[in-house]
Specification:
By secondary structure, this protein is an all-alpha fold. It has one domain. Helix content is about 80%, strand content about 0%. The protein contains ten helices and two strands; from the N terminus they run ααβααααβαααα. A two-stranded parallel ribbon has the order 1-2. The longest helix has about 35 residues. It is globular. The two termini are about 20 Å apart.
Length: about 260
């Protein structure tokens, strides 16, 4: 399994365009937006008083995992990782040498690893900007163990939400052998969830969709939301991830790849 993981990681690293736009562009864009907004506020309002909770600010920044445009770019990167073998017809060289479970798992694990890196970039970058602007404005810093726990929990929620996205994109690429068939539906799911919530209001939250489940968890963590809704949200996300991953593996295990 380790050689497969190393090979998949090397493939992705040798595609800097895919690595940047598919995994790193979203957190970098989020940091640039925060930099512009924080700079504008500093220029308009001047020095601010009070302490800044560095870890809590970073925890809130991880809500980018629910951004629709972010889902589009992440789905593009994930789909590229899985579609590469179909495009160059190299599955026929890999399948005889390795179990299909390991082939599928290696690609999915590499995608999950870089999604985790993206979240780390967002969190660490937010903390750096918070500290810099806090020093510039003469504010104090409130760093507590409880805030660190909140940050860790927010990271777990964001990672689980993106893991569901990765398993969905992987399933669609494998099922349709097409990258566009994975990118567009995942983006439409994110946009559709937002529009559905605007149309149905609070009734939409009862639907077992990943976006709503992740938001329930974030509301519980950051805004004192209902614990029961958070527990249901966690179960929904785990259920989506396990179901989509299992279905993707089942489809991949039964595919005819002699000519792919």
């Amino acid at each position: 399994m380790n050689p497969l993981l190393s090979a998949e990681m090397l493939k992705l690293v040798r595609q800097p365009g895919t690595l940047f736009w598919g995994f790193l562009a979203v957190p970098i864009a989020a940091l640039l937006v925060k930099l512009v907004i924080a700079g504008f506020i500093h220029l308009r309002l001047g020095r601010q008083s009070g302490d800044v909770d560095v870890f809590l600010s970073a925890a809130k920044s991880l809500s980018l995992s629910g951004n629709s445009l972010g889902h589009l770019l992440f789905a593009l990167g994930i789909a590229t990782v899985f579609f590469l073998e179909y495009r160059y017809s190299t599955w026929r060289l890999l399948v005889p040498r390795h179990p299909r479970v390991q082939l599928f798992a290696a690609k999915l694990l590499v995608c999950l690893a870089w999604l985790a890196v993206a979240l780390l970039v967002a969190a660490v970058g937010d903390m750096v900007l918070t500290v810099l602007f806090g020093m510039l404005e003469g504010q104090g810093f409130d760093i507590t163990p409880s805030s660190l726990v909140t940050l860790s929990a927010a990271f777990g929620i964001a990672f689980l939400e993106l893991a569901v996205l990765a398993s969905l994109a992987a399933l669609l690429v494998v099922a349709f052998r097409s990258m566009i068939a994975a990118v567009i539906p995942t983006f439409l799911l994110a946009i559709g969830s937002t529009l559905l919530q605007l149309y149905l209001g609070a009734d939409a939250d009862r639907l077992p969709l990943p976006g709503y489940a992740a938001q329930d968890l974030r509301d519980w963590l950051l805004a004192g939301g209902a614990p029961v809704a958070a527990m249901i949200g966690a179960a929904v996300l785990f259920g989506w991830f396990c179901a989509l991953t299992g279905l993707g593996l089942a489809v991949f295990s039964r595919q005819q790849l002699a000519s792919e």
